[in-house]
Amino acid sequence: MLENFCENELSDGLEGQFAKKEGIWSDEYPFGLDTSGAELDMLLSKAYLCLHGISLTTQNHSCSSSLSNCSSVSFFAPESVKNGCQLYRCVMRIYSGKARKSPPKKILEYISSVLPPIEDTKTNKAVRQFIYANTEAIGDEDVTRIPSSFPFWVWNKNSETLLGESVSEVYFVRKGLSRELASGPLPLLGSGKESRDGDRSEGDSTEERDMVVRQEIKLYKKFLAAIEDICFSPNNYASWYTAGLCLTSKADMICDRLGGVQVSYDASAMYHVKSVIKQLGQESPSDPPKECSRINGIGKTLDVYIQYSWANFSSLFEFSNVMQGSMNDNESHSTYQMEALGEINALYEKGDYYAWQNTWGSIFVGALRSMAYRCFRVSLHLAKESLTDENQETVGLVAEISETIGTSLYGELQLSTSFGYPMGRMPDKTKYRLAEKSLTCFQYAIDIQTTEVSESTSRIVPLWQLYFMKGKCEEKMGGTVWRDKLEDGETVRLYETLMEKALLSYSIALSGAIKFEEEDGPPDVTEGGSSHGKTEALYRIHASRLKILIRAIRLPKSDRENAEREALRLTTKYWFGGDRPASLDLKDLRDQIWLVLGNVIAAMVQCRIDKPFFHRSVYRHAQALCWAPLFHDPDDTTGLGSFGTVPAHKSSILRGFNSGMSCIDCALPILKVYFEKKRPQLCAVWVTSSTSPSPFETLNDSNRKYNALRCKYTGAYIDCLRLGRKREYLETLMSWTKASRRDLPAFYHVSAEARGGQPKDHPNKDSLLRGEGYVWFAKHYTNRAIAEILKVEIEAEMQRELSSKTETDINDKADQTSRIKGLVENAYECFLRLNCSFDEISDVLMRNSDVSFTVIEVDALISGINVLENATDSATPTDGMDVDKNARSAAQAKTATEEGREKVELLEKALDKCQKLFNNKAGSHLAKQRKKLKMKRKSSSGETSIGTGAATSSKSEPESSGEGKKQKVQHGEEMTKKTFVVGVPDGLSVGSTFQVNVKVGPTFTKRVKLKVPSNNSKRLRFAVSVPKAAVDAEHSTKAS
After folding, report:
1. Which one has a higher pLDDT value, 105 or 277?
2. Within 10 Å of residue 590's Cβ, how many Cβ atoms?
3. Which of 362-366, 372-376, 761-765, 785-789 has the lowest mean pLDDT?
């Protein structure tokens, strides 16, 4: 009653009587009634607080009172649509004025919930059909122009009749609500630390997924408000822009949680070692990916990809069922889409939930980006149309929209991954096309700001940052054509033209950054990141020079000389530290290349001096040193590659190069800066976010790019340790990885295996055979490196044994056996860190026809057991379990399956041997799994499924009566202390641990972890809490 009386009789009456234009929709009361109107609004605020639990502030009015004394109650919806409209008018009056903040979104959403739904008109359908159409995201059209498929006729309609209804009160409220809800910044995903690092402790699965789901819902609501506002006013470029931002925000959020960041490290770009590159095989693919059919989304329309949540496993499963139903009901879908949906459903049916989730995530990203680009292009077109001489403020917005489109397009190039279906490596043609589109957008933003904005006007995006991104686009385009040869009639390669433009853009950016910092001061950066101002531009110039040199040296000998002269033309124009030396042209080609290399390294060192936290130059410095022998001797006549050295008079030119040391050994101390101490993020890389990030900062602030950088630096460091045989450093790095929590891709991988629930195991128990994310990559790559070094050391011991004389001293023989045993123990620890079942390893080994499935940890363990048996049994190395020379020659006549079966059998024997030798190590679960496997073989027609395949017969083991099984302690059971004495295993150092099993009575067993005492005692006494009933049962058994 109070609400209706105040609104209808007083507030509406006053405004309707005295307002000149807006009537009851006026934001202010008539002249002379400000105080009375404020009193009325205060009265209404109290009523709404009591009726609906809505607190409205009135601090902008002359009558300011506190409403804290009026207690709020539960929310109740307004009695009618009219009451909702009255509440909206009151809210807009209170929050009117430019100095006031926007009304709370919760209140506006509350009002919107009581209004009737928007009418589905012809204009509404046309706008939504344009946005949701399942067509190619970016074609050959100019991205700065509106798509040709846009329904231009919607702009010819009167905005007052778009909904097909009269200009009513509900119409004005709905229109105003959609405009207010669509305005303002996008919602943020959790806190800064959560959105950046993504670290999750064990048991936080539901919190992470629920947080992302809440963010998806917020983006969906804001997107709907923007679309509704577009339906009221199709020429409102701000709402088109907001809709595109909502779509890209969700796409980027999903992209950060997908796998594939470990492919960002290419070992062949870091160093040159022929044997190693050949060994890497498909782990670092150099063959360009082939073009294939790819779709951005499945389904006739793409609205479901913003409507449904990807992070929630149940919602994703429901979405999959909805897609299956819509495809079955509509036969107009392409055969390729039907086949794609069938392949995705097959992943779920066979239990590969992570691949199923990841595939849908890739399709979500492709569909969302496809819709976003349409919205951005319409927004840019409308903003350009609104430009006038009097409307200079719009120029900055036009540049911002164009820069946003360019940044989004360039973001797709990160990690060279094509999203949609199927998800895969991006072909060079696609890279070139995307980089070219991105370049067009950045160039347009530069042109419009240089022609439409005076020098005195402040710019939203500084020009030097746009030139910086322009150079990155041109460099990315050049990186796709560096292997191309001269076309007929050409005198300059397209690659040289593009790289020359890129270096020029970087040079302009550097000059602008220096001028910008002289006026505004340098950025305040206390940690490493992407906010280093002019240092970023300086680094980019000389990093590009280094890549130009390396590309030239990697070409075949027939093309190398021309490529090197081309590289000199490009790199000598931008000399670091002053003008190019006049004597440079008088030197031969090799000396000129060497001087340029030294100049590049000097620039990398200076970047680190200017900004101690600048991490990018460290990697390039080490990369330059690794390639130095090839710049000295391109033909690599020694065959050492990066293991080689250079003459002293040349090495003195390169900072960090020590004469007489291999390049790998010289690069290692430089890369060690990343890992100088134990850190939560493992690698010394940070992300710094500014309040108004540049396009480059926006790209590098993403979780995906952050993990990709860490993968690249960590992979380079591990490879230098591996090639330098620094096993002790790798062991230290492996211990550091145990303290690192799962990152987002790793978390979503293990969580998907639990169907979106809590991960089953601790992060340190995750399988290293299959995983995702940076932390998994660091563990996997480090463990492989350790295993490879161990295998080399084991083979060296075997050669030493072969070359030793038969009358070798007994003590020397014992020392050699002890060394081999220690290596086998380390190899066994390496194998146990795989954290996988025997069946999983067997499946991988059975697929060993593909070199990417080679498990070096298994090879090292089998080789170690073979050498150990030869050393202890005094047998020739050709006997026993040799899997090297003799096994490889014999395997030539075997099929891949037979070879895999043989390796599984050898592994089984090796594990049995390790269980006997190292019973203090974990891994008894493998013995249990192998025992079950043997029982399964015996129960199935007496034929072994692994090995030679010959039939065997043996006595069937009696069924267990339950004796000796581990008995769990019941809650509330009475406990007592019992003392045990055990012998300390030989060969363990003081402080190391071992495990023993204690048994009390006929049923209770318990595993206890003990530490070797410092007094070198051979026996150890300890006490354990055991059930009193078990002790009594044991006494009864002894008495009987």
Report:
1. 105
2. 14
3. 761-765
Give the integer Cα–Cα distance in Å for 967 and 961. Answer: 14
Phi-psi region of 941 (alpha: psi -120 to 50; beta: other; left: phi over 0): left
Lowest-pLDDT range of 74-78, 746-750, 775-779: 74-78
DSSP code, position 588: -
Rounded Cα distance, 631 and 641, in Å: 10
Tokens of 3: 């609400």
Structure tokens at 483: 């292997």
Question: Higher model confidence: residue 940 or residue 673?
Answer: 673
949 HSE (CA, 13 A, CB side): 5
Confidence of residue 61 (pLDDT cuts 50, 70, 90): very low
For the record, the structure tokens of 411 come out as 């973001």
SS3 982: strand
DSSP state of 903: H
Q: What is the pLDDT of residue 302?
A: 94
The rounded mean pLDDT for the chain is 80
C-alpha to C-alpha distance for 129 and 126, rounded to whole angstroms: 5
Is the pLDDT reported for residue 971 higher than 50?
Answer: no
| 3-state percent helix, strand, coil for the chain, nearest multiple of 5 | 60, 5, 35
Structure tokens at 396: 């900055």
Q: From 754, 713, 757, 748, select the one nearest 733 (Cα to Cα).
A: 713
Q: Cα–Cα distance between 367 and 692 in angstroms, integer? A: 28
> Residue 962: how many CA atoms within 13 Å on its side-chain side?
2
What's the confidence (pLDDT) of residue 411?
A: 92
- The tokens describing 140, both together, are 């050959």
296 Cβ contact partners less than 8 Å away, ≥ 6 residues apart: 134, 136, 137, 302, 363, 366, 367, 369, 370, 420
* 439-467 tens-digit pLDDT: 999 999 999 888 765 554 555 668 999 99
Cα 992 from Cα 822, distance rounded (Å): 14
Encoded tokens for 335: 């055969």
Higher-pLDDT residue of 282 and 5 is 5
Query: In the structure encoding, which two tokens stand for residue 432, read together?
Result: 């070139």
Secondary structure (3-state) at 976: strand
Looking up tokens 């070139």 gives 432
**Are 1007 and 996 in contact, with CB atoms under 8 Å apart?**
yes
Q: How far apart, in whole angstroms, are the C-alpha atoms of residue 634 and residue 637?
A: 8
CA angle 57, 62, 66 (to 5 degrees): 40
Q: Report the C-alpha gap between 869 and 794 in whole angstroms.
A: 12
982's tokens: 């055990």
Number of C-beta neighbours around residue 390 at 10 A? 6
| Phi, psi for 359 (deg, rounded to 5) | -65, -45
pLDDT at 986 over 80: no
Mean pLDDT on 688-708: 79
Distance CA 870, CA 863 (A): 11
Residue type for 641, please?
A: G
pLDDT in tens, 319-351: 999 998 888 776 666 788 889 999 999 999 999
Spatial CB neighbours of 562, under 8 Å, sequence gap ≥ 6? none
Longest dimension (CA), the chain: 120
Average pLDDT over residues 961-978: 57
Asked whether residue 567 carries a pLDDT value surpassing 80, the answer given is yes
Identify the H or E element spanning 987. Answer: none
**What DSSP element (H or E) covers 723?**
helix 703-723
Average pLDDT over residues 666-683: 92
What is the average per-residue pLDDT within 840-854?
70
The DSSP call for residue 742 is B
CA dist 418 and 296 (Å) reads 10
Query: Which 3 state secondary structure label does DSSP give 855?
Result: coil
| Average pLDDT of the segment spanning 26-37 | 62
φ/ψ bin of 249: left (φ > 0), alpha (ψ from -120 to 50), beta (otherwise): alpha
Of 269, 696, 265, the C-alpha closest to 472 is 696
